[in-house]
Each structure stands twice: as structure tokens, then as C-alpha cells.
Write a structure and sequence with these properties.
The protein is mostly helical and 221 residues long. It has two domains: 57 residues, Arc Repressor Mutant, subunit A, CATH 1.10.10; 127 residues. Helix content is 69%, strand content 0%. It is built from twelve helices and no strands. The longest helix is centred in the middle third of the chain and has 23 residues. The radius of gyration is 25 Å and the shape is elongated. The chain starts with 11 loop residues before the first helix and ends with a helix.
């Protein structure tokens, strides 16, 4: 690397961590068009040294994906979501408070945006993970709730996307958003469940028993 001081010696694991953290910052800032030269410069190492740890930019991007996306998801969230001793609305709000606390960061949201624009398979894998590991169990809990219509997966994505959009407005568009998203989460969940409750309720016409024939005839006179 021209004009760059020789990288100080680190243990292999520490050096690998240094490169991953630098790649996270670089991908968040400029996207997946960053070259290995850019990534090496950001990490303060030579390209040759970077290639000793990661055989390609794709391999480094995979390590970033594991760290930023999958590494922030806790299996405990779903265990708590499926604990039916707690009211459903409380479980859903708790899950989304935990989820947004994990992903509402500059790095997470911008890497997600750049990966989508670049057509990276990482995004499709993550969205598949969200659907199978998060939204499907959540949908099952909602469907099991008495008095609620079972939502389809498109409805689940609408709920999820509406909440995640708070973070997109903050970190992608630079728009003002609530410092604490909890009240917005609670309002969104309440509206979602109210809509499912209305869908499950029979219409007033269907619920009303039919009047006797004689009474119907009298009412028309």
C-alpha cells in the first residue's frame, strides 16, 4: 500500500476482527462497489494481507452479513413471543422493541439498503430468514389468538415493513423520527390487531337474526 505505514502485528483473530469492522464501516458508507483496495485501506492493511484472511470481497461480505445481520438476532425473542401466558399485544410489542434496538443503526440499515440496490443475494437470504424464523412464528401466534382473523404473509410483511420504515427514515433519508420508537410500535401493533379483530367479527347484517315473515311484511306497509 503506497505511503502507508507497515501494519502493526496483531494476533490472527484480532486482525480478522479489524478487517471485518473496517468492512462494515466501508460498506455502510459507500456500498458494495467498494474494492478490496478500498477495504484494505479502510482497515489499514495491505491488499495482500487482506487476502490472507479473506479470499475475495464476496467472502468478506459474507463475514459482514453474519456479523451485522444474523449476529444481532436472538433466538430468545421467538421463545418469548411464543409464551402464551403473556397477552399477544405485549409479546408483539416486546419483540419489535428488541428487534428495532438491534437493527436501528447506521451500519445495519445502510448496508441493507446498499445490498438491495446491488442485487446482493445476502439481502434475499436475510429476508428469507426473517420470513421463516420471525414472521411465520409470529403469524402462528396471531392465528392462535381467539377473535382474530389469521393474517396472510403479505399482511405480516406490511406490519414488519411499517415498523422498520421508522429506522429507514432516520438513517437513510435523514428525517426526524421518535428517539424512542416504542410508542409508534405500540400504536402500529394495536392498529394491526384491531384490523384483524374487525375481519374476524361477523357483519351486523349476518349477526342479526332474521325477522319473522309476518313482521317483515308489516314493516313494508
Amino acid at each position: 500500500m503506497d505511503g502507508m505505514a507497515r501494519p502493526r502485528r496483531l494476533e490472527p483473530e484480532a486482525r480478522r476482527e479489524q478487517i471485518i469492522e473496517a468492512a462494515i464501516g466501508c460498506f455502510a458508507e459507500v456500498g458494495f462497489g467498494a474494492t478490496t483496495r478500498d477495504l484494505a485501506g479502510r482497515a489499514g492493511v495491505t491488499q495482500a494481507l487482506l487476502y490472507r484472511y479473506f479470499a475475495s470481497k464476496s467472502e468478506l461480505a459474507e463475514a459482514v452479513f453474519e456479523r451485522v445481520f444474523l449476529g444481532r438476532l436472538s433466538p430468545v425473542w421467538i421463545i418469548e413471543l411464543q409464551d402464551r401466558r403473556t397477552p399477544l399485544a405485549i409479546r408483539l410489542c416486546r419483540f419489535y422493541r428488541q428487534y428495532t434496538a438491534a437493527i436501528f443503526t447506521y451500519e445495519w440499515l445502510r448496508i441493507f439498503m446498499w445490498a438491495g440496490l446491488a442485487g446482493e443475494a445476502l439481502n434475499r437470504r436475510y429476508l428469507g430468514h426473517v420470513e421463516q424464523r420471525l414472521l411465520a412464528p409470529m403469524r402462528a401466534e396471531i392465528a392462535a389468538e381467539p377473535g382474530l382473523a389469521a393474517p396472510d404473509m403479505e399482511a405480516m410483511w406490511a406490519l414488519h415493513g411499517g415498523i422498520v420504515y421508522i429506522g429507514i427514515r432516520r438513517h437513510i433519508y435523514g428525517l426526524p423520527t421518535p428517539e424512542d420508537p416504542a410508542p409508534a410500535i405500540e400504536a402500529t401493533v394495536a392498529r394491526f390487531l384491531a384490523g384483524l379483530s374487525a375481519e374476524a367479527a361477523p357483519s351486523s347484517r349476518a349477526a342479526r337474526p332474521a325477522a319473522p315473515r309476518s313482521a317483515r311484511a308489516s314493516s313494508r306497509r
